[in-house]
Amino acid sequence: MNVISPRSGTAFILKKGQKLKITDPEGEQVSDFICFNLNDTKEYLSSGRTIDYAETIFLTKGHPFYSNRSNIMFNILEDTVGRHDFLLTPCSADTFRIIYGDKNPHRGCFGNLCEALKPYGIEPDAIPICFNVFMNVAVNGESGKIDVLPPKSKAGDYIIIEAEMDLIVGMTACSAEMSNNYSFKPIAYSIS
């Protein structure tokens, strides 16, 4: 089991057919997840395509996740939580400056992903909306207002995905206060 320290990130290769288990060891901790086609990094995980084809924003077991080219990148095989977010962008220094008013903001998930993905030749502008594992975002059906609520994940909750192509994966232990019920914890993962 690999551990991503609080407010940090990592990147690695996940080959077609491999399974990735993402675990919340302590509960109420979000992990921003993004992936790119290992053989052509201009193909990346697409929030818009995935939501469009699934006809739901609440993605869970049984949903395929699509690239910007409408190819399936991975499927969720198991999900003990059932609530994640695919609407909101990775938190960043700008997030903390604009939303929280921080004077010396943390670089956030975006900065952590930039650093982790740099060795793979992925530039900051190429990082799209992430699949925010365990993030709980409520949407008002009338007004469209969104609320970031505490994650529903408890200690030991997990999802398992299976890669449908060779992937470069970027993952974080999210850095945003609101997303994690105002405490920062690790995220664990394993590949099989």
Automatic annotation (TrEMBL):
It comes from the Bacteria. InterPro entries: DUF1989. Residues 3-168 form the DUF1989 domain. Pfam families: DUF1989 (PF09347). This is DUF1989 domain-containing protein. It comes from Chryseobacterium profundimaris.
